[in-house]
């Protein structure tokens, strides 16, 4: 099958509760958003766009030769920001858009292209995403680690912050060494531009509000999300000043 053509959009907000100005935080001698942009370019995307609501970020993107799209500051979610980009850029409904988080400076280009290709190959799905096996007990019971369970055909059955699937008997007896079937969801998505426009018009679903997981709105409305095991183990994400220190240590160690 021919390789799917796709566009990468990187939402980048200046405001962050735990790390204000996060996209402009330096890792080595480059701002974090530039690391993400450079990794996205290596994925084979037709175009890479940084979606921002802050002129400081726009200026930095312009200075290093990137492309920025200014968006409204009042968006409730990253999906709303992506939908505005689709409209401003005049994307066709069938165009594939990959949402790459602006706080993933070491994201794998292979994972970006993988999620786009998966959506291109699964016409009955409106979105695609990735997962990776959970190997540690602490992740199973960590509500910040989102879990996913899929059908045999790769379609998502459910996403949760709780341990799923629940290993009856094993969990009650604190025996979780096998971690059988536990998959961590990786927060990278490919959408069709037309579905993004529909998605932002849908009301938040009850299960979405309970779990605080936007992707559950898609399942609650009867649509399909394709999930595949990631080709590469996800790199370090940055949410806190401690994460930023760890990212700089990783960057120096690997001489990136």
Overall geometry comes to: globular
Distance between the termini: 33 Å
> How many separate domains make up the residues?
1
CATH superfamily: Spore Coat Polysaccharide Biosynthesis Protein SpsA, Chain A
Instruction: Please describe the biggest sheet, giving its number of strands, its sense, and whether it closes into a barrel.
Output: 7 strands, mixed
Question: What is the radius of gyration?
Answer: 18 Å
Classified by CATH, the class is Alpha Beta
Structural class: alpha/beta
- Strand-residue proportion: 15-25%
Can you write the helix and strand succession as a string? Answer: EEEHEHEHEHEHEEEHHHEH
Helix share, percent: 25-40%
Query: In terms of per-residue confidence, which ranges show pLDDT below 50 for 5 or more consecutive residues?
Result: none
Report strand order across the widest sheet. Answer: 5-4-1-6-10-7-11
What would a concise description of this structure say?
The chain is an alpha/beta fold and 256 residues long. It is 31% helix and 21% strand.
């Amino acid at each position: 099958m021919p390789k799917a053509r796709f566009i990468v959009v990187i939402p980048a907000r200046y405001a962050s509760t735990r790390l204000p100005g996060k996209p402009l935080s330096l890792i080595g001698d480059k701002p974090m958003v530039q690391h993400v942009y450079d990794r996205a370019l290596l994925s084979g995307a037709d175009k890479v766009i940084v979606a921002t609501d802050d002129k400081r970020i726009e200026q930095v993107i312009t200075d290093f030769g990137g492309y920025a799209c200014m968006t409204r500051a009042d968006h409730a979610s990253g999906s709303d920001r992506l939908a505005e980009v689709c409209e401003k850029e005049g994307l066709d409904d069938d165009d594939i858009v990959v949402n790459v988080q602006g706080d993933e400076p070491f994201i794998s280009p292979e994972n970006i292209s993988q999620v786009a290709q998966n959506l291109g190959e699964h016409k009955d799905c409106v979105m695609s995403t990735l997962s990776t096996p959970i190997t540690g007990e602490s992740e199973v019971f960590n509500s910040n680690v989102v879990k996913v369970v899929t059908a045999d055909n790769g379609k998502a059955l459910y996403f949760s912050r709780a341990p799923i699937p629940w290993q009856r008997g094993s969990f009650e007896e604190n025996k979780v060494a096998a971690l059988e079937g536990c998959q961590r969801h990786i927060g990278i998505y490919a959408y069709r531009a037309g579905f993004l426009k529909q998605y932002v018009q849908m009301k938040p679903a009850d299960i979405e509000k309970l779990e605080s997981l936007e992707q559950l709105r898609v399942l609650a409305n009867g649509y399909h999300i394709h999930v595949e095991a990631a080709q590469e183990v996800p790199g370090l994400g940055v949410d806190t000043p401690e994460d930023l220190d760890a990212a700089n240590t990783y960057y120096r160690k690997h001489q990136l």
